[in-house]
Design brief:
The chain is an alpha/beta fold. The chain has nine helices and seven strands, in the order βαβαβααβαββααααβ. It has a single domain (5-143, 187-199), classed as 3-Layer(aba) Sandwich (Rossmann fold), CATH 3.40.50. The chain is globular. Strand 5 and strand 6 form a beta hairpin.
Length: 206
């Protein structure tokens, strides 16, 4: 990966994606998009793909049906052979059969691509929701930074579980915990080719 491209608008994101697609010269170049839950990935990408004529694939649509009921460990489950995704071969076949550019949308996409070698992307995008602190000095705050960017995983999980015990009757949301582990292990926010930092509002949530 070269130097990370930092952008601040959806128009800029569209422009950069088009540049990567044109440079690839492939029939179905794949661009992966990652980000914390609620950042607005699906809402933004559906509109973008509709405008550009690209194929939008949501990885959540290919999760095992019981993933939420059984509170399956995302990272461990996927690491044991890609079993997190139902009909994984169907997903791969869908990608290979598509003859237009593909946007692969999912909060655990780096985990999937690490273990599923039949899917090859040309670029990666990470979405950050930010709050403006000072327009004068162009400073902003990454809303999900505490959940995504930290040094000690065990201390972070311990802290989150203690907080959850107070506010959530003793249970740390298992999806949030999996995302915390995922960001620690794969660091998608640091490795993406493009990072979109945009002002977040409630109507942008996916």
């Amino acid at each position: 990966m070269g130097e990370q491209i930092i952008i601040s608008s959806i128009d800029d994101l569209k422009s950069k994606i088009i540049d990567f697609v044109k440079a690839s010269k492939q029939d179905n170049p794949i661009i992966s998009v990652d980000g914390f839950f609620g950042v607005g990935k699906t809402t933004i990408l559906k509109a973008l793909c509709a405008e550009l004529g690209y194929k939008h694939i949501e990885l959540d649509r290919h999760l095992d049906d019981n993933i939420f009921e059984d509170k399956i460990n995302y990272n461990e489950y996927l690491s044991n052979g890609g079993l997190l995704f139902k009909r994984i071969n169907d997903l791969v076949d869908l990608i290979h059969a598509t003859k237009v550019p593909i946007i692969l949308d999912g909060a655990f996409v780096e985990n999937l691509l690490h273990h599923e070698k039949r899917i090859n992307r040309i670029a990666s995008v990470y979405l950050k929701r930010v709050l403006e602190l000072s327009s004068k000095y162009k400073s902003s705050y990454w809303v999900d930074k505490d959940e995504c960017d930290f040094d000690d995983l065990d201390k972070k999980i311990e802290k989150e579980r203690a907080t959850a015990k107070v506010f959530d009757k003793g249970l740390l949301n298992f999806l949030n915990e999996e995302l915390i582990r995922y960001h620690y292990n794969y660091k998608p926010h640091k490795k993406a080719d493009i990072t979109l930092e945009y002002q977040h509002t409630e109507d942008k949530k996916c």
